[in-house]
Structure formats: structure tokens, C-alpha cells
Amino acid sequence: MRAIRDNALSIFFFVIFLLTLLGQSIAGLADTNEQNSIHGEPAVTWWQFVRSSDFMVDVAENWQSEFMQFFVFILATVWLVQRGSPESKKPGDEGVGTDEEQLVGEHARPNSPRWARVLGWRRWLYSNSLLLVMGAIFVLSWFAQSLAGLVVANEENAMHGEASQSWLDYIAAPDFWNRTLQNWQSEFLAVGAMIAFSIYLRQRGSSESKPVGVPHHVSSEESE
Question: What is the pLDDT of residues 137-158, one digit of tens each?
């Protein structure tokens, strides 16, 4: 029970992720079979649907925009600040910080991660591991979206007697970037709103909010 309590936040989001992914697959299957019925085509099974390019492109399209959001946010918060927001470091703390501040090398504590105490590429890799992993997932999911989208687009082209597209043709098409940028702009809006709203609004008990009585212009880091 202690392990569940200590990891409850991760477990909660992983569980609701699986539930909503399952819900998406069920709703998507129903919609697909409804369209197939209208066009006189045979129904597909759930297993056939979740392995289809139609399902993959919708899932990957959302994944890549979410991880792109975190990639940009993590990188931006290294160098940019917003006074009063708990999502930001305090003004004057821009940059990667000193070894002493980051508890690396000779400044590492006995319980610091092992790669924080070593020199060379391992310390650099570990020091940037969060950004690198988020960026890698973003790129891979974007690539998966483009491949699945290409399959769907060429299936539609074949139905209308049109020529197939290459991958380069597909990712250069306005339709691809229209869908992609729709997702990106909403992610940037959500992050920007969270940064700005958290200056003036509070949620008691949340780690994403400053303490209720902290002045608007003070970040949660400065209030400690």
C-alpha cells in the first residue's frame, strides 16, 4: 500500500490514459463501422481497427503534439522566466546553473544519482536526459503519425482513382500541416495559459500552485 501511495499520481494518470485509449478505440470502431455500413463495406473487428492506420494516425497525432509541448516547455524554462509563476524559476536564475546548485561532481550528495557524480559524456547525458527523451518521443510519434497518415491518404486516393503520394509529398501537403499546427497551437495556448493564470490564481494543496497567501509577483521558489 505504501508503494501505491508513493506513486499514486503516476498510477492515476497511467490508468486513466489506458481507459481513455480504450474508450477512443471503442468509439472509433463504432464510427468506422457506421461509415462502412453507409458505403456498403463490411464491418471490422476491434482488433482489426486498433491495428489500422486510421487508429494509429489519430493516436500518434495527439502523442506527438503533447510531447512536443513538454519538449519546448522544458527547454524554454532553462533560459526564460516569468515573474510570479510557479512554473518558472525566479528572475536572475536563468541558465543551466552551477555545479554546486545542481549537486553534480564534487558537490553531489551521497544519495545523488551515480551519473551525477561522474565526469564526461555520462554526466552530460544524464543532465539533459529529460529533454532528450521527450524530444525523442516527439520525433518518433511525429514520424509514426506521418507514416500512418500516408497510408490513410493513399487509401483515400485509390478510392477516388487518384495517384499515390510519396512520404515527402505527404508531409509537404497543406492538409498534413493544417492538422499538425491545429494541435500545436492548442498545446502552446494551454501551457501559456497555465503559466499566466498561476501568477494570479491559486489551488490550495496543488504543487502546481503557489501557496494561497503568497503575493502575485513572488514565485513559489522565492517564497520558500
Answer: 999 999 999 999 999 999 888 8
